[in-house]
Amino acid sequence: AVPRGIVASSEVEQSYVMIKPDGVQRGLEHYKDLKDKPFFPTLIDYITSGPVVCMAWEGDGVVASARKLIGSTNPLQAEPGTIRGDLAVQTGRNVVHGSDSPDNGKREIALWFKEGELCQWESVQTPWLVK
Ligand code: IDP
Ligand code: MG
């Protein structure tokens, strides 16, 4: 398929999904709702410690689906079969991020991607996964 730009304001629910950590200054704003938490300085050290892989996912219920796949914040409470449950041990090294609401999905995608950087791509398997 030929990639074409999509805009974060589209009507379709979106989730920003990130394989942490990032090396980009913009990351400092990403967790602003957690700025008063005691772990905030270590979280920023972690999230700016190297490159990340950024993704914008979209579809009905994608925020909840992504978080189900990712698992609980604390990997010790994450179910086996989830990314954090299978691959992580500590909350402070929990491998992956997923937006916690459709509004934050839009906000975070706009924070991490400039217009025109997103491409829309559909796997040939998609019609066999979702109706
Ligand atoms: P979430 O990633 O499951 O949505 P949040 O509560 O939004 O969890 O926290 C954002 C990130 O901050 C977590 O994924 C984790 O990396 C880090 N974090 C959360 N709580 C703690 C903590 O108590 N100690 C260290 N890091 C934490
Ligand atoms: Mg969160």
TrEMBL record:
Residue ranges of every copy of the Nucleoside diphosphate kinase-like domain listed in the record: 12-120
EC number: 2.7.4.6
GO biological process assignments: CTP biosynthetic process; GTP biosynthetic process; UTP biosynthetic process
Residues holding ATP: 20, 39, 67, 73, 84, 94
UniProt KW Cell inner membrane keyword: no
Example GO molecular function: nucleoside diphosphate kinase activity
Protein name: Nucleoside diphosphate kinase
Coverage span on the entire protein: 63 to 193 of 193
